Amino acid sequence: MRHENQPSRHRPPGTAAERALCTAILALRSVEECRSFFRDLCTPAELQAMADRWAVALLLERGLPIEKSTSNRRQRHHDQPGGSLSDVGNGGYRAVTDRLNANP
Q: How far is CA 3 from the centre of its chain?
């Protein structure tokens, strides 16, 4: 049960700029287009941070406890409260890993 002073696990709809970014990402048609887009958009450190977060999500999806999956990382994911993929984020990790597992 959520208390009044605790934030909701799900965030409100994003800003117009965030929605435009998501729409742009959905327009990408290949891994190479995606790689080029993110290399243009992000600094190398930002891209590495996102890649690290995704790597942790994949480890959690395989059932590795969060303490082990982040032991070699400099920084824990910004909102990792628990030890499974179901406990992390806003459902986006789970949606993508489910789709990737359905279409190997």
A: 26
Q: What does the DSSP assignment read for the chain?
A: ---TTSPPSSPPP--HHHHHHHHHHHT--SHHHHHHHHHHHS-HHHHHHHHHHHHHHHHHHTT--HHHHTTT-SS--TT--SSSGGGSTTSHHHHHHHHHHH--
* Per-residue model confidence as pLDDT tens digits over 33-57: 999 999 999 999 999 999 999 998 8
pTM over 0.85: no
Place of tokens 């994003």: 14
Confidence category of residue 12, pLDDT binned at 50, 70, 90: low
User: How many whole angstroms separate alpha carbon 2 and alpha carbon 63?
Assistant: 26
**Residues in Cβ contact with 90 at an 8 Å cutoff, skipping those fewer than 6 apart:** 9, 10, 11
